[in-house]
Design a protein that fits this description.
By secondary structure, the protein is α/β, with parallel strands linked by helices. The protein is 41% helix and 16% strand. Among the domains are: 28-113, Leucine Dehydrogenase, chain A, domain 1 (Rossmann fold, 3-Layer(aba) Sandwich), CATH 3.40.50; 139-257, Rossmann fold, CATH 3.40.50.720. Strand 4 (159-163), helix 7 (170-179) and strand 5 form a beta-alpha-beta unit. It binds guanine.
Length: 293
């Protein structure tokens, strides 16, 4: 087996299982629906939102995009969230981040019905995850976990180091790994002896947003490396996407590694679709779908 984890192929498989789950619900007259809200004109966010819409429809789900101008007031956005909360055809709500600076993103996220919070960012879902209860799990860490389980099987007892402490990736990733009975360290920009800490990892998850910050000699031979970074850099006169890990040197020592692009990235939208299907099943009193291949 190659030591490169093919996130694109993995995501394709997961999207196929989601589509089968959606087809199964159609027989009961149920159509899962995802509403995405975008405020302003950030070009990267527009690309994400367009891709989310395309893949949602490809999976057989209903998709709504609500595009609001950058100067929209907080009250107007909250009114839209309330309307989507009350709409029984909407099972998942995603408010694209970042929001414009005049908005209180935490207040907006916490206004989403937790049962429809397919990002898993609502404070209730954060608390449920942290206490090991059934919740909505943030898409990027969920994608990382599915790939780790697929590669390694049982993760219990492994040393996991998560570099990065964001609410979107680092913290929920650490909670998920703890839930798998890993010994978990969260490292960050102030961590002393970061190289040594990384070298202790059987599982190394990099989510710091700094291009190629982690070189191969910080990787324990045979370790599994998950690179969440997506950094745009100028190199040799062209724009390239690179991760937080220096892929070429790390791939020589890692037992398995995700590339950038084509690793974690494709899994995020696939997990969003999976979460929407899960939310729809729960809303209809059905068991959670089986989404592991
Ligand atoms: N912006 C970039 N990634 C994400 C994501 O996963 N969810 C939301 N809501 N906004 C994002």
């Amino acid at each position: 087996m190659s030591n490169i984890i093919d996130g694109k192929a993995f995501a394709l498989g997961l999207r196929g299982r989601v589509a089968s789950g959606v087809a199964g619900l159609a027989a009961r007259g149920i159509v899962p629906g995802l509403a995405v809200v975008l405020v302003g004109e950030d070009p990267a966010s527009e690309v994400y939102v367009r891709n989310k819409g395309i893949q949602t429809r490809e999976a057989g789900m209903a998709s709504w995009e609500h595009k609001l101008p950058a100067e929209t007031g907080q009250a107007e956005l909250l009114a839209l969230v309330e309307k989507l909360n009350a709409d029984p055809a909407v099972h998942g709500i995603l408010v694209q981040l970042p929001l414009p600076a005049h908005m209180d993103a935490e207040a907006v996220i916490n206004a989403i019905d937790p049962a429809k919070d397919v990002d898993g960012f609502h404070i209730l879902n954060v608390g449920l995850l942290g206490t090991g209860q059934k919740s909505m799990v943030p898409c990027t860490p969920l994608g990382c976990l599915l790939m780790l389980r697929d590669r390694l099987g049982d993760l219990s007892g492994l040393n996991a180091v998560v570099v990065g402490r964001s609410n979107i990736v680092g913290k929920p990733m650490a909670q998920l790994l703890l839930g798998e009975s890993c010994t978990v360290t969260i490292a960050h920009s102030r961590t002393k002896n970061l190289a040594e800490v990384c070298r202790s990892a059987d599982i190394l998850v990099a989510a710091v947003g700094r291009p190629r910050m982690i070189p191969g000699d910080w990787v324990k031979p045979g370790a599994t490396v998950i690179d969440v970074g997506i950094n745009r850099i100028e190199e040799d006169g062209r724009t390239r996407l690179v991760g937080d890990v220096d892929f070429d040197s790390a791939a020589r020592v890692a037992g398995a590694i995700t590339p950038v692009p084509g690793g974690v990235g494709p899994m995020t939208i696939a997990c969003l679709l999976a979460n929407t299907l899960t939310a729809c099943c729960r809303a209809n009193g059905l068991p959670d779908p089986e989404l592991v291949g």
